[in-house]
C-alpha cells in the first residue's frame, strides 16, 4: 500500500511538472504532427496569450498556462 501511495505521488508530480513546463513551440509541433497524421489540411495553429482566442478553438495550453494554442480552419 505504501509503495502505491509513493508511486501515485510521483506520477502526479511528474504530470504537473510536464504540463506546466511545456514550451509552446514544442507543443504546437506535436499538435500539428497529430493533425497531419489524421489527414487534416488547411488549418493554422497560433500561439496567443491566454484568453485571446476569439475566433478559434483552443487545442492546448503551454508555458505554465499563460499561453494557448488556437486551431483555425
TrEMBL record:
The keyword Signal applies. Pfam families: DUF1161. InterPro entries: DUF1161. Keywords: Signal. The keyword Signal applies. Residues 1-19 form the signal peptide. This is DUF1161 domain-containing protein. The lineage of its organism: Bacteria, Pseudomonadati, Pseudomonadota, Gammaproteobacteria, Pseudomonadales.
Amino acid at each position: 500500500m505504501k509503495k502505491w501511495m509513493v508511486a501515485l505521488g510521483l506520477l502526479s508530480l511528474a504530470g504537473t511538472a510536464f504540463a506546466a513546463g511545456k514550451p509552446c513551440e514544442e507543443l504546437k509541433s506535436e499538435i500539428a504532427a497529430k493533425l497531419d497524421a489524421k489527414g487534416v489540411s488547411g488549418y493554422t495553429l497560433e500561439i496567443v496569450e491566454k484568453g485571446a482566442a476569439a475566433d478559434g478553438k483552443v487545442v492546448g495550453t503551454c508555458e505554465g498556462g499563460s499561453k494557448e494554442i488556437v486551431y483555425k480552419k
